[in-house]
Write a structure and sequence with these properties.
Number of domains of chain B: 2
Structural class of chain B: alpha+beta
Number of helices of chain A: 15
Number of strands of chain A: 7
CATH topology of chain A: Beta Polymerase, domain 2
Helix content of chain B: 25-40%
Distance between the termini of chain B: 48 Å
Radius of gyration of chain A: 20 Å
Order of helices and strands of chain A: HHHHEHEHEHEEHEEHHHHHHH
Radius of gyration of chain B: 19 Å
Largest interface: A-B, 24 and 20 residues
Shape of chain A: globular
Largest sheet of chain B: 8 strands, mixed
Helix content of chain A: 55-70%
Largest sheet of chain A: 7 strands, mixed
Shape of chain B: globular
Oligomer: heterodimer
Chain lengths: 331, 287
């Protein structure tokens, strides 16, 4: 229940009049568990509510997170500038760097960047020279990342203790859809500091791909909130945005994921766009809204089902069997 | 959760849920004179839960969870459930407190002015604060002092005083009328027994105080007093704060502001009587 209240309040803050103290405590616990407390706090700013002190703390915390994320992007820019390679910011850092609504109050963990695949080795070497180190010492994991993933094994900066994920595309090469990585970079938009962000359409497509064509939907309510904020802002700027989004999604082989994202965003946040619901949407919504009054995940069966699905999406069956066997033997 | 209770310590409201009755009953008893969270809204949730459903009954062991968790926190036996709850509350503060700069220090107050004591584990900051409480000082907290970046004042966080090993007998003797929790033997930190702060500490928990003296006590050496320069104090306090980095510029401003105006001494003491005499002397001289 609490995740549903959270979603309702994000969409329409006036629904908060209905909440008593227990309701607030449940919503705050769910918002923390989904890393949406900062986004919620931004939505509720200025309202007279009993949780005002907690929301003020969350806004201050998100603001500090924004400053730290931009500083981390700047650190990467300085380390990589000599290479002359386009560096595209992704996810939360991109939202705040571009000043988008989706960045307001958003929690930001790792720095995610996208670079052309042919420059991956040079980028990695430059980061290692500038103080980043490998996180995964395991040779199987390392080899797996390099051969089969859309990103380098994660690196962490030894002084600032912040992770960087260096992507060369937005889905693992083993996944069935194959987005056009060249087009992602070719159409990226330059910021004043020389870094790039994805085009508006690709930003939404990346969020949708991350949510529905990869991963087990953990933290999905936040990803879906990103999609809501992005779509609303881009539709407001350009009435033809949804049409160009659909076209671009087809080019990236991601029409299904984007359509699913728009349907669920509409169902949960009232986002503009999105076609007629299909039956399986209910199962996705059940997974996305599975938080109880203490912020715990409910529906363990649904959760496990989506975990299995995430592996199924990521790898062909024979490869999945080999991967699970290797992981099993290492336990 | 099956069992739950709420309470407030200083400005911070907690909700503690548990799969078992006993930790919640112990919290209710020991915190019975504490107020409820403001407006019923809690700042943090703590969850004590069984790793597997059957572990509620078979060799019950308590996992510590909450709004904020660390990946590999070791579970505790159910007999130490009260300690698990206290650790869970401390963990929420250490990981997620953002309104106040958190100083890992004990604090006592007299005449609206606060004495802070910080140091390594085993330096005696909890014991000294508890002893000063029995001698007319107001206990503000034995673990965390909350520095308000807006006002520069210290806010109290008078949770149960956590007494370890020899400190247990010291305080049983010094506070014969004190309310103590159960003796928790053989915890990861040795024997632990909690002492409820006295009525004055609880009644005044919402009253902040102006920081007036900071001490770095060290136990086990011949009696000595040394002036600590602001630069050293600053560095040591950044290490003694769990949220200094996360607070960003606000944390830096609060800490430099504190260090610039506060007299600071390192004191060595061979026994608690010497320490208490040193504290009273320095309080009269430099605070």
């Amino acid at each position: 229940m609490s995740a549903l209240w959270l979603a309702m309040a994000l969409e329409d803050p006036s629904t908060y009049d209905m909440l008593d103290a227990d309701g607030w405590n449940a919503v705050i616990a769910a918002a923390r568990a989904e890393q949406l407390i900062g986004s919620l706090a931004v939505r509720l700013e200025g309202l007279t509510i009993p949780a005002a002190r907690i929301m003020a703390d969350a806004r201050a915390s998100a603001e500090q997170g924004r400053v730290a994320a931009l500083w981390e992007a700047e650190a990467a820019r300085r380390a990589l500038a000599p290479l002359g390679v386009p560096i595209v910011l992704l996810k939360g850092t991109a939202f705040v760097a571009a000043g988008l609504d989706a960045g307001r109050g958003r929690s930001i963990g790792d720095l995610d960047i996208l670079v052309p695949r042919e420059h991956l080795d040079a980028v990695e070497a430059a980061l290692l020279a500038a103080g980043w180190e490998w996180v995964k010492p395991d040779p199987y994991d390392d080899a797996y990342y390099r051969r089969w993933m859309h990103e380098l094994p994660p690196l962490i900066h030894r002084e600032r203790d912040r992770m960087i994920d260096v992507h060369h595309t937005i889905l693992p090469p083993t996944a069935r859809p194959t987005p056009d990585a060249g087009a992602l970079i070719a159409d990226a938009v330059a910021l004043e500091n020389g870094l790039f962000v994805l085009s508006n359409e690709d930003m939404v497509i990346h969020a949708a791909a991350h949510l529905f064509a990869d991963g087990d939907l953990q933290g999905g309510l936040r990803n879906l909130w990103d999609i809501d904020r992005l779509v609303r802002e881009f539709v407001e700027r350009d009435a033809g945005f949804l049409a160009s989004l659909t076209q671009r999604a087809a080019m990236h082989d991601l029409s299904g994921a984007v359509a699913r994202a728009l349907r669920l965003a509409r169902r949960i946040y009232g986002t503009p766009g999105g076609g007629e619901p299909v039956a399986s949407d209910a199962l996705f919504a059940r997974r996305l809204l599975a938080r109880d009054g203490w912020g715990r995940l409910r529906h363990k069966g649904t959760e496990f089902g989506f975990y299995v699905r995430s592996h199924w999406l990521r790898m062909p069956p024979a490869m999945l069997a080999r991967h699970l066997w290797t992981k099993f033997r290492k336990k | 959760m099956r069992y739950a209770t709420t309470l407030r310590i200083g400005p911070v409201g907690f909700r503690i849920g548990s799969d078992w009755r006993s930790p919640v009953d112990q919290l209710r008893d020991l915190y019975r004179d504490y107020p409820q969270p403001s407006d019923g809204i809690v700042d943090f949730n703590v969850r004590l839960f069984a790793a597997r459903p059957w572990r509620r009954f078979v060799r019950p062991s308590v996992m510590i969870g909450g709004d904020f968790t660390i990946p590999d926190a070791a579970p505790l036996p159910l007999a130490q459930g009260l300690l698990a709850a206290e650790m869970g509350m401390n963990l929420q503060m250490a990981l997620a407190q953002r309104r106040y700069l958190l100083l890992h220090a004990s604090a006592v107050e007299r005449d609206g002015r606060a004495l802070l004591m910080t140091g390594e584990s085993g330096a005696g900051k909890s014991t000294l604060a508890a002893l000063l409480m029995t001698r007319g000082w107001r206990l503000m907290g034995d673990e965390f002092a909350l520095l308000d970046p807006a006002s520069g004042q210290i806010h109290a966080f008078p949770r149960l005083v956590s007494l370890k090993n020899e400190a247990i007998t010291v305080m049983e003797r010094a506070a014969p009328d004190g309310r103590f929790g159960p003796l928790l033997a053989g915890t990861p930190k040795g024997d632990i027994r909690h002492l409820v702060p006295d009525a004055a500490a609880i009644a005044a928990m919402d009253r902040p105080a102006t920081p007036a003296l900071l001490l770095f006590p060290t136990y086990g050496q011949a009696s000595d007093v040394r002036v600590v320069e602001p630069a050293e104090t600053f560095v040591r306090l950044t290490q003694a704060s769990t949220n200094y980095v996360a607070m960003g510029e606000r944390g830096f401003d609060a800490l430099t502001g504190l260090v610039a105006r506060l007299p600071v001494r390192a004191i060595d003491y061979p026994d608690t009587d010497t320490a208490l005499a040193l504290v009273e002397r320095l309080w009269g001289e430099v605070a």
